[in-house]
Amino acid sequence: MRISIIGSGRVATHLASALKAYGHIWVDVCGRKQSHVEQLAHTLGARALTDISDINTNIDLLIIAVADQAIKDVVSKLDKSSGFLVVHTSGSTDVKVISDHIKNAGVLYPLQTFSMGSQIDWSNVPIFIEANAVENIDILYELGEQLSKKVYEYSSAQRLSLHLAAVFACNFSNYCYDIAQQIVQAQGVDFKLLAPLILATAQKATQIDPVTAQTGPAMRHDEGILQQHLEFLQQYMPSYATTYQLLSEQIQHRHVKIPSDKK
Question: Which domains does the chain have, with CATH numbers?
Answer without folding.
Answer: 2-154 (3.40.50.720), 159-262 (1.10.1040.20)
